[in-house]
Design goal:
It is a single chain. Helix 1 runs parallel beside helix 6, helix 9 packs across helix 10 and helix 10 crosses helix 15. This protein is about 50% helix and about 10% strand. It folds into 2 domains: about 180 residues, NAD(P)-binding Rossmann-like Domain (Rossmann fold); about 140 residues, no CATH class. By secondary structure, it is α/β, with parallel strands linked by helices. Strand 8, helix 7 and strand 9 form a beta-alpha-beta unit. The protein has a 9-stranded mixed β-sheet with strand order 1-9-8-7-6-5-2-3-4, with helices on both faces. The two termini are about 40 Å apart. It contains 15 helices and 9 strands. Bound molecules: NADPH dihydro-nicotinamide-adenine-dinucleotide phosphate, the ligand CC[C@](O)(C(C)=O)C(=O)O and magnesium ion (2 copies).
């Protein structure tokens, strides 16, 4: 633990693993986060069960890894910690199935606080409610763990009836590899608002929009799609890797002076005051609950807009060009080499 920062950050030495002794953890869902939490915990020596619906397409993968699978209700009945890792939009329905099995002193555990914060799930007073939210896609939570590295995570406690919620949450975070990189103490509100803002404005929405607009500007001006792909998409990873390793300065140090001068003088013309105002508007939609309402209604209506824009994204030219180019990399699977990275399953 360190007090150098504005928030409490815990590392492996701060964690008492005994809080997971004689404890069974039920992981509901075996998707991006679910498979990572279940496998990492199992390999950390935790007793893990996986909860999946009857005829679940995920059952085979979980069983092949030696995990015991039951329905969400069955595994919740056997576990003291129930980790809800099905998609946010199905959590309220799955919660209805497990609620009768929440016993005094159990922990209801989340990786994102949307349903608690926006009152879609109201847990009983006799359980702890915690969140361990890795700041990473689940497949990398798993990959980092296997590579003896870690993934930073957030820990929040919404309800602490036992008095052990923080310690149990930390033990959970350590078991999935988060304490190797740092576990930041936060609240459900802060996690939800920063996570939704980050994924919409920077990590997922902002960056894909930047890539597509850059690519389209070059292609529309007559440059080859292949050159535009390498420039605006492929090299982005390499630039971001440098920022990940050593901050903005390591990236600026590695690129040419020409790139540094051009980037420093032009970047703010792209992400300008207008873009900043849009960011603030999006943050307000998150804070007010407007985004959550829109997303819940979109699901109740059968996802009409989501289906359409998702398809348009898949059909974007950059996807087809990128797929062809990536297939030709000398290390690609089509070259006969085995790829050890776990496959990222399609959502639907
Ligand atoms: N994706 C990520 O990296 C991150 C996710 N989170 C949070 O983690 C949680 C889980 O998200 P994520 O891992 O993306 O989820 P996924 O979409 O990957 O979850 C898929 C899993 O949920 C199961 N599932 C889907 N629908 C149902 C249903 N109706 N009933 C029972 N099981 C169902 C699927 O099983 P089946 O085969 O039966 O469909 C599958 O095992 C969310 O709260 C999310 O916000 C937090 C940080 C990052
Ligand atoms: C950035 C998207 C994310 O918040 C994540 C991987 O952390 C998510 O909800 O998937
Ligand atoms: Mg996130
Ligand atoms: Mg998120």
């Amino acid at each position: 633990m360190t007090d150098e920062f504005t928030t409490q950050i815990y590392y492996e030495d701060d964690v008492d693993e005994s809080y997971l002794e004689n404890t069974t953890v039920a992981v509901l869902g075996y998707g991006s986060q679910g498979h990572a939490h279940a496998l990492n915990m199992k390999e950390s020596g935790v007793d893990v069960l996986v909860g999946l619906r009857e005829n679940s397409s995920s059952r085979k993968a979980a069983e092949e890894e030696g995990l015991e699978v039951g329905t969400p209700a069955e595994v919740a009945a056997q576990a003291e910690i129930i980790s809800v890792l099905v998609p946010d939009t199905v959590q309220p329905a799955v919660y209805e199935e497990i609620e009768p099995h929440l016993e005094e002193g159990d922990t209801l555990q989340f990786a994102h606080g949307l349903n608690i914060h926006y009152n879609q799930i109201t847990p009983p007073e006799h359980v702890d409610v915690t969140m361990v939210a890795p700041k990473s896609p689940g497949h990398l939570v798993r990959r980092n763990y296997v590579n003896d590295e870690g993934t930073p995570g957030l820990l929040a406690v919404y309800q602490d009836t036992t008095g052990d919620a923080v310690q149990r949450g930390l033990a959970y975070a350590k078991a999935i590899g988060c304490a190797r990189a740092g576990v930041l103490e936060t609240t459900f509100q802060e996690e939800v608002e920063t996570d939704l803002f980050g994924e919409q404005v920077v990590l997922c929405g902002g960056v894909t929009s930047l890539v597509k607009h850059g690519y389209e500007t070059l292609v529309d001006a007559g440059y080859s799609p292949e050159a535009a792909y390498f420039e605006c998409m492929n090299e982005l990873k390499l630039i971001v890797d440098l920022m990940y390793e050593g901050g903005l300065s390591e990236m600026w140090d590695s690129v040419s002076d020409t790139a540094e001068y051009g980037g420093l003088t032009r970047g703010d013309r792209v992400i300008d005051d207008n873009a900043r105002e849009n960011m603030e508007e999006i943050l307000e939609e998150v804070q007010s609950g407007e985004f959550a309402r829109e997303w819940i209604l979109e699901n109740q209506a059968g996802r009409p807009s989501y289906t359409q824009i998702r398809q348009a994204e898949k059909d974007h030219d950059i996807e087809e060009v990128g797929e062809r180019l990536r297939d030709l990399y000398s290390w690609s699977e089509s070259d006969g080499e085995e790829d050890e990275t776990p496959e990222v399953p399609a959502d639907d």
